Structure formats: structure tokens, C-alpha cells
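Q: Joint fold for the lines below.
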Amino acid sequence: MPAPQRKHRRGGFSHRCFPTPQTAMTPQPAGPPDGGWGWVVAAAAFAINGLSYGLLRSLGLAFPDLAEHFDRSAQDTAWISALALAVQQAASPVGSALSTRWGARPVVMVGGVLASLGFVFSAFALSLLHLYLGLGLLAGSGWALVFAPALGTLSRYFSRRRVLAVGLALTGNGVFSLLLAPALQLLLDTFGWRGALLLLGAITLHLTPCGALLLPLALPGDPPAPPRSPLATLGLGLFTRRAFSIFALGTALVGGGYFVPYVHLAPHALDRGLGGYGAALVVAVAAMGDAGARLVCGCLADQGWVPLPRLLAVFGALTGLGLWVVGLVPVVGGEESWGGPLLAAAVAYGLSAGSYAPLVFGVLPGLVGIGGVVQATGLVMMLMSLGGLLGPPLSGFLRDETGDFTASFLVSGSLILSGSFIYIGLPRALPSCGPASPPATPPPERGELLPAPQAVLLSPGGPGSTLDTTC
Amino acid sequence: MRALPGLLGARAPTPRLLLLVWCLVAAARPSSADGSAPEHSSMPIEKNITLERPSDVNLTCQFTTSGDLNAVNVTWKKVGEQLENNYLVSATGSTLYTQYRFTIINSKQMGSYSCFFREEKERRGTFNFKVPELHGKNKPLISYVGDSTVLTCKCQNCFPLNWTWYRSNGSVKVPVGVQMNKYVINGTYANETKLKITQLLEEDGGSYWCHALFQLGESEEHIELVVLSYLVPLKPFLAIVAEVVLVVATILLCEKYTQKKKKHSDEGKEFEQIEQLKSDDSNGIENNVPRHRKNESLGQ
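A: Joint structure:
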């Protein structure tokens, strides 16, 4: 009888015969590719990070020209970048909500156009207000639409090497600001600030092709259809998850102290007696330590020797301690000295802060599942922005009250330490499977943190967090 | 940056400032027997003094040597001419002091004053009196047609009597008059001046000079203004935008192309499978029975 033979022959595709061609032809989505097109996405995220944060950092070069032209003080022009940063971070959930609804690709492409328009608009500014609107509001909103979706998409493309990929993307910040600073100075010298802003608009437009590279990826565990209601796309439902709420609280606290060195490390070095070049050296070594640590931590964290939440708590604590040391370093002698103790403290701080950064994003899929990463990224950005808005002014206030930055750095370090302490409450082992959660939230991805046997080995040793359930 | 000799007549000498300036000149020790003198090379010693108002001045030089102080010839000169009177010479131990007192009233008395100590070699110390220098921008100021711009000149700790602005076409300097709606000259503080030019045209570009008038002379500074038209940055802008559009189009087209390829290869496979099934079907004796069996096999 030919039937068994037929069975055999048709065993592989018998289910395709009768169902409709579309669903018949669609294969089951595979897991994260962990490479391949993922590296292209990493490169795109690298450029996106650089063209948003990196560009914002070097924008300060144009401010003296702007202050002179509009006859305003340096403080007034500094509000431009403060506003852009605030809008970019606070509006991040909007970006992730839109990309949850329509996919990351169109959102990032539109964000690039928006940011570019902001620069073009500000090139024709007739007052500082126009610059606040163009650079602060428009460009900031454009950048809000690009960062979280790009990073979220990147996280979806990797599992075993996720922290490395994220760390790689986050170094775009430093690299681009290093390259853009002299380029921007050249533009200012050749075209004046108006021409420079116009051409920066063209450069910013490169966010759009980067967005075009963010191909959507279908993963197991994705909801079958994107949520429709605005609130659902925002992902506020993620806060009902205990792990994410703990993480959110910890991150908000860390955010209060994390951005203080960005603003106050150089003035602190100057206060401690270093000359201009000495202070610049301190900032430079901190930045280099930060950039290097992002990559190294990415490499090491993905090995899986230590669970990511634990690494997060450790490096967060180290960052806080680093800030304490930076604040407590004794007065350095004279303008000529190269400031040994402060340099060492700055390097220590830079290494810890650089290791902390990719972990913040790398730990998200373990907390909310791969399907909710984009929304979670947006919410995390917003939380850090709260701290970023309050932290530096508080630090400045303390400086004015006490006369030096010791109190500021102590308080910032304490905020980071308390946030890291809260991180200890995060689940250490694999996230719980099959939670009693609404059907919209996808089940967490399996096995991206650790293979199970290793988790069993490590958890008895850790300071017992029995808050979570394991499978 | 240049201090020019002024044309002011002498004012009644009301010295408001007594200036005491020291100059230290160290000499080599002449050797003993063999005649070749191991000379320390002493660079000519100079001191720059900034002065803007009439003042009493007291210049002092001291000279240390191991030789005979009486053999040293001491003179004061201003720009080559020997000054006859008003200087004292005294000695203490191995050091010779000389003092020159005078009053600077107008710009003719500004310049370089030198004290000379002649032994075997002549040693000199020089005092340079100058009016305050002006600071402007080292880089050209870039602006655009239709825009307005502000040219600033300032000096540290100085109070000029008057500020003026000039334009230069080639070597001719033309004063900038205060035309309504075009040029506005003002300064918030006494030590700075600002020239605001509105409704810029391309012809407004060029060299501008700010002049500060002091009682003891003048100072001026050069600022370069460049006026560009909007086409200048517009061309690179459009070029970059075109490149971006090209890259995006390439990415999207490449993706569509690879998708079509996939679809074709998938359709090809589908076609093959259907062909095979059809051939299976035709192999069967009856249509219904094999299908039944297929259904059963499907049900597993």
C-alpha cells in the first residue's frame, strides 16, 4: 500500500496542504537571531545614539556665538540643551508607545525628520525663544521618538549577547560627540551659527536611514496584534509587575544622582584647585573609562556568570561609592599638579557608571519579557529624566549653600546607593513563568538570562531574595 | 593692538598716580687672569607698562657687579636720545642704583625709556610705556544678508575718553556714521563699545576698526566681518539631504527586492509541493479514498 509511503513523504508539509496559503506558508517565529541583521541594527542604534545624545553634548560649542548674537547671558543659552534633554527623556514613553502601535521603523524615521526640522527652523531664529522652540521642543521631540524604539528593537535582536550589543550602541554617544565637536567648530567658523545649524539639520536627517534599517522582528511571545488604546501602548500596565516597579523605583533614585557628574565634575575639579587643563583631563578620563566600561561590561555580562540584576545592583553601588570618593577627595595642591587622587576617583566613577549603563537596558527583557522591552525602555528614560531634572539643580543648590561640591557628590552618591539597594529586591533567577497577568502581556522569554542549573547554583549564595517565584 | 602717538596738547600736569617701577639688571662677574671673560649672557631686560592717564613716574634700575662701581657709566636714554637731568645714582655694597623721575603728560612722553650701565659691556634695562590694548575677535565674524550683527571691542580696566568706529576699503579708513536704522553705537560699560549693524548687505562685509582715544594716545583693533548669502550653506544642505533620500530609497528598494526573491522561492516550493501532491493524487486509484487516508494522517 502506498499510503505509508505517502505519509512519510508528506510528513514534513502535510499540514500545509489544506489551510489557506498565507498561514500555511508562515513559519513559526524563531528566537532572537543573536547576530546577523542584529549587528546592522546595533550599528544603526550606535548612530542613532550618537546623533541624538552625542550631538546634544557638543551643541554647547555654539552657545557663546548665540549668546553674543542675541545679547543674552550664557545661562540663558544653557537652557536650550537643558530643554532638549528634558523633552527627549520625558517624551520617551510617547516614542515607545507609537512604536508599539506602528512598529519602530516608521516612528524612528519620522523622528529623524522632526529633529532635522527643528534644526532647520532654529537656523532662522530671530530670538532665543525660537531656539528654545526649535532645538528644545522640536528636536527634543524628534529625539524622543528615536532613542527608545531603537534600543528596544536592538534588545529584541539579541539574547545571549544583548548587553554587549546595547553597550556597543551606547558608546555611540561618546564617539559622536568626540567627532562632532571639532566638526561643529569648523562649521561655526565657516558658516556662522545659522549655517552651522542648517547643516546640522542635514546631518541629523541621517537618523531616518538608520531608522529604515530597524527591520521589524517577529518573536515568539509577541502579542498577536498591537494594542490599540493609547494607554495600553504606553505600557503603563508594566508597572503592575512587581519586578518592574522595583526596578522603576530604583532607577528613578539612581537618576537623581547619575547626571550630576555630567554637569558638575569639571567645576568640582576646578574648585579642588586644578587648572583648566587639569579639570579637562579629569572629565576626559571619566568619559573614557565610561565608554570603555560599556563595551567590556557588555562582553562580560553576556557570559552569564552573574545574573544581570545582581550586576546591576553591584555596579550601581560602585557608582554611588565612586561619587562619594570623588566628593571626599582632599584638596589638591596647586594649579600645576595633575590631581592624582581626583583622577583615580574619576576613573573609578567612570568605569562603574559605564558598566551600569548597558545593564539598565540589558536587564529589561528579563523583567518584562521581550515583547514589552520597547515600552519599558521608554518608561525607564522618563524615570531617569525626572532625576535628571532634579539632580543637577539640587547639586548646584548644595554647592551654593555649603561652598563646595562635597555635599553635592555625597548626596548624589547616596541617591545612587539607595537606588542600588532597591535593586536587590529584583528577581535574581529566571523570571516567573506563567504569571497571573492580563493576557495582553506576553510570557517572558525563556533562557535569556541564564541556563537554569547555574541559577540554582548561585541563588543560595545570594542575600536571600525570596520575593519571586521560579518555575 | 597698536598704540599710536596721540595729538593731544599738554594738559595741566595733575598727576593722579605715582608710579614706581623697578628694573633689575644683573651682570656677569668678570674673570681674573686669562682674559677671556666667562660671560653669563644676560638678555636685555624689558618691562611693559600700561598707562592711560597723566602720571608721575619713578623708574629705578639696580645693577650688581663684583667690579669697581665707580668705573660704571650710568645713563638714561629715551629712544636713542640721552636724557640729561633728573636722574640719581647711588650705591650700596656691590649694587648700583639709579632713579629717573619724570611726569608723563601727553603722548609725546610715551615710548621706551632705558637705563644703561657701561662696564666692559653695556647692560640695559628698558621700560615700555603704552596705552591699553584693545581686544576684539581673532576670528572673522560671519553673518548673513538681512541679518543684524554686533561688533564688540573692549579693553581691560580702561576708561577711554572716546570710542570711534571706522570702515576700511583697501587702505582708506572711513568713519562709520550713525545712520538711523543701520548703525547703532553704544556700550554698556565704559571699557567696551558695540557697533550694531542691521539689514546687512553683502557690501557691508570687510574690515572694521574700533578706535579708543586716551589722554596719552590711541589704541585700535581690527575686526573682520563676512556677510554670506543663504545660498552658501544651502548648497551643501541640499546635497546632504539628497544623499539621505538616496540612502533611504536604496534601503527600502533592497528590502523589497529581497522580499520578492523570498516570495518567489517560497512560491516555487509551494508550486513544487502542489505538483507532487497532484502527482500523488493521480497515482491513487480513486480520489476519495486516498484523501480520506490523508485526512486521517492529518488528524494525528
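Q: Anything notable?
A: The mean pLDDT of chain B is 76. The two ends of chain B are 97 Å apart (CA to CA).
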